[in-house]
Known about the structure:
Layout: E1 18-21, E2 27-33, E3 38-42, H1 53-59, E4 64-68, H2 88-102, E5 108-113, H3 116-126, E6 131-137, H4 151-155, H5 160-169, H6 172-180, H7 188-195, H8 205-212, H9 223-237, E7 242-247, H10 255-264, E8 269-273, H11 280-283, H12 285-298
Parallel strand pairs: 3-4, 3-5, 5-6, 6-7, 7-8
Antiparallel strand pairs: 1-2, 2-4
Amino acid sequence: MAxxxxxxxxxxxxxxxxxxxxxxxxxxHYADEGAGPPVVLVHGNPTWSFFYRRLITGLAxxxxxxxxxxxxxxxxxxxxxSQYGFRLGDRVADLGGWLDSLDLKEPVHLVVHDWGGxxxxxxxxxxxxxxxxxxxxxxxxxxxxxYRPPWRLGLFRLTAPLGDLLARRLNWFARGTAFFGSMRPLxxxxxxxxxxxxxxxxxxxxxxxxxEDIPLAPGHPSFELLSRLDQxxxxxxxxxxxxxxxxxxxxxxxxxxxxxxxxxxxxxxxxVLPEAGHYLxxxxxxxxxxxxxxxxxKH
Length: 299
């Protein structure tokens, strides 16, 4: 299924649409703005490249900012369940294929958020020589002791039919994350931007499948892969220039996960945002942009 039509204008997202077409004909939408060292921004669920709009605008004077929409999200194509696996491994492969198609001549600065963490770090761990630096924003590769997923997320995972009803048919996941993700109410323009790609149930299959693919226990199809990515991170990526940018009031990636990263990566340059939530770029855009400019210029 083709992507939903993109509105003529989305506030704060004036970027020209670009398309990467996979060998099977499925197309992924992405933004490509600015010039200079490449900065690759990988989003999670249910966001899309719109999440990074302020960072793209603020960095594009000095960097080439590249932000992909995962298949089924944003304004990328909407594959049917028979066309696509919707698993972590599929997402990592998509990211690698897209980056290969760009034929970049220098290592990239990788920025990841939410489920974009495992996706981006999965690609980076297999090609560490192509990575100049890593910035982790409210994401995880493992569950620290004592961590329990929030009940709001668990509601979508009680049964597959219930998750499909809530996330795909009723759009509660995208709407709920827009409500709970930011500590300050989203402006009407921002809310419209986050929800714009998900107007119809046919546009929301990937939202439900992303939730199903969260590997909470052994036996899940993506559990072993996530464990390997975590190990590979420690072996291949933990000595890269690293930044942690963290909203402490995140209802999913809570303080336990942040402290686990801090213990694991004591050398990381860190920006802690006590009053920011999961959508930290909505809560503290200016502070994050200032920090990111300094970090990227240094490395």
